[in-house]
Fold these 4 entries.
Entry 1:
Amino acid sequence: MKNLKEMKIDELVKLYKIEENEEMKSLVLVQILKNMETYICSYLSKEYKFLLSSEYKEDEMQLVLTLSENQVSNAVNWLMELIRQGKVLNYKFTSATLDMQYGGMIDGE
């Protein structure tokens, strides 16, 4: 079997469906999400010309995208299309914290 990091998403999905070991299924799922993060960030940057930064929080299975103020409307339209297609199940929009806006300067980092 290939290393999980070398596998494409369709190969990982097939493996996930047939894998019986729960620990291995979890590892496969995490790799699927990491691959999706890379794809999503690349796609957003190329197609929609928005995305200041991204962060994948593995323990929460959450992708955090940071946008500028003028990028938000395109991002919302893109997200609504993904929801209509059933590709996004849960989302949240929030404004950036002061700490995020000033790059950690508030708490002395």
Entry 2:
Amino acid sequence: MLTRREKIVMSLIFKKCSGKNKCLISCAEIINSLYPNEYSEKEISEILNCLVLENYISLIVTEKDEKETYCITLKEKGESFQRDNKNSKKALFKKIITTILFACLSFAVGLILKAIF
């Protein structure tokens, strides 16, 4: 399961790799596309390594003009990231609706029992 920060970075990578399975992106480009004051280069590197360990991407780090550039290839889990994200949101929505319906049902049964007794 991905953390909130990993999901944010993964969605950015997914957008950059749209239509292809590969993309070249620099650390500065990732930071500027997200929240510049919230992420550091070290944190981005750690997040990308976590995504590699989770088997979402494969990562090759190169230096171009003394700046790190990442060659990112989406793996099978990475390609299905957006679909999995939508499915988890649907499942959460269904759970919330079910909980609300059961709360209303419990309230109604409570009122009926209170009126009887």
Entry 3:
Amino acid sequence: MQKPKAKSVSVALPQTDPADDGPEVDIIRSERVATSAEKNLYRELPARYEHTGCVGCKYLGQFAEYDLYFCPQNGDKTVLARYGSDPSNYLSGWWSRLAPLMIAEALSYRKGFAA
């Protein structure tokens, strides 16, 4: 089975600073792009759930009921969407089509963690 050909798309996210009118985030995505309704669920608020298992994780913000993180994993980057404090309460994966992970990936690029 062949891997789908990736194409470049642009995802605009809410600005973190009202004075910041920076460019949209360009990311590589195979098919799905976050909808405007999904982007409106992103909030820059403190984490709701405990995330202590990873020393290098960078908190990105909240999306719907998820806390979003970027994890460098010793060079093998990934993103996490935590939905509870239990160690198994999370989604993860780079190149995912799940909305919380897509938003986390785009934020990772925007904030300079995944460059």
Entry 4:
Amino acid sequence: MRNTIDKINNYLQVGGMFNPELMEHHKVSDLLLECRKQLMKAQEALLPFAKEATHWVTYDDDEPVVEHFPGYEGEMVVGDLRRAFNVLEEK
């Protein structure tokens, strides 16, 4: 995802923010497709956390979660699960 963010920053720095008509349309299209791919990967990674949030509705945000989630290291609290859920629910 870092590579995609760098590409977006580069696009904006070379004038894409103020003169998007100067950019080559196929490059903009490629960038948008890459952004969509990365967002879909992030959404897929958040899904297990968001689903788990529905099981913790009566707990405070600072309540520790003891389950282990693959790919997640460190301490997790219920508020982390709720934030994942909220990100996926954004319209």
